[in-house]
Specification:
Length: 332
């Protein structure tokens, strides 16, 4: 395999930058290809579905969906490892990667499209990649279409007038909890990045590129801000820590965000999909959260449960998951 991998993506896609950060850390030879007007024909040649990231291997195989891409690359490039050796932290890393992809995406999408200043910022940056260079009229027209389309898709992440305060409170609380945790270590699980870092970071980084997200991060979370910058080109700065040294500051995040919000939400979503419901409501930390069910979320919960079932020795893991409020959701 003489040619490098090609990673088609865009900066405003949390899943694209997640994979780019992963490739950079693994030092996998690759070319970052911005999906724009000039690269669209090449992208469409390989893409099976119209999403990014798209990874084209040296053998011209097309890979899509960020988590399966990392699974595939781990098999080819096992070192440096992005999985803690300890069974507890290894699974928690997978859990946080899933949390980032599914619940963290609510933060990013809502913050990007709920307020006019964020809409114009993101819409303008997207339009700049699609319009002919120097054509300001085309850029403005594309920006208006992008904003119109995306502001009408809040249902996809459950963003609406009722849930908006819940999503924003979750993001701001997470910043505070993560800031305390990251004050004493460069990455979530110690001296090197894990799957949990890549999944959570892609969403928070993208939120930070927008005006509202940037203001909230920079005002309240200096350690998170340093981690955001660090994860753009992560390096190995030490070993993974054990749960014993992580628990004091990571458990509050696990219990308040993953156990209290994400786990009951993803179970309710899966149940709604199974019954064919058009909408579902679930009590999250004493408040009702309502949205349309999403097929992919149900599929990813199934995979997460399979990963949990595959843990050979759960004697240390189960008490942690029980304390965090996650165990019943994972046991199904």
């Amino acid at each position: 395999m003489s040619s490098p991998y090609r990673v088609f993506g865009v900066e405003l896609s949390p899943f694209s930058v997640k994979i780019r950060s992963y490739f950079r850390y693994k030092q996998i030879p690759h070319e970052w290809v911005v999906r724009n007007a000039s690269s669209m024909a090449d992208y469409q040649k390989y893409a099976k579905i119209p999403i990014v990231p798209l990874v084209v291997t040296p053998d011209e195989e097309a890979l899509q969906d960020s988590t399966p891409i990392m699974e595939r690359m781990d098999a080819f490039f096992p070192d440096p490892s992005t999985h803690p050796d300890e069974p507890i932290t290894r699974f928690l890393s997978l859990l946080l990667e899933e949390f980032g992809d599914e619940w963290g995406n609510k933060w990013m999408f809502h913050l990007r499209w709920a307020r006019e200043e964020d809409q114009l910022s993101a819409g303008g940056r997207i339009a700049a990649t699609m319009a002919p260079p120097g054509d300001e009229g085309a850029r403005t027209a594309i920006r208006e279409k992008v904003v119109e389309r995306m502001t009408g898709r809040g249902f996809f992440v459950g963003s609406n007038e009722v849930t908006a305060p819940q999503i924003e409170a979750s993001f701001r609380s997470s910043l505070e909890l993560l800031d305390r945790h990251l004050a004493d270590r460069p990455y979530l699980f110690g001296g090197r990045p894990s799957w949990g870092d890549f999944g959570l970071w892609g969403q928070i980084y993208n939120a930070w590129t927008d005006p509202t997200g940037a203001a909230w991060v920079e005002a309240a979370a200096p350690s998170v801000l340093a981690w955001i910058h660090r994860m753009l080109n992560p390096t190995n700065e030490g070993e993974f820590e054990s749960w014993a040294t992580l628990s004091d500051t990571l458990m509050p995040f696990l219990s308040e965000q993953v156990g209290a919000l994400f786990c009951p939400w993803t179970v309710a979503n899966a149940e709604a999909m199974a019954t064919g419901a058009q909408e579902f409501s679930v009590e999250l930390a004493g408040q009702t959260f309502t949205q349309q069910p999403q097929k992919y979320h149900a599929k990813s919960l199934k995979t997460l449960r399979e990963n949990y079932a595959a843990v050979a020795d759960k004697s240390g893991l189960d008490p942690v998951l029980e304390a965090a409020g996650c165990l019943s959701a994972l046991q199904g």
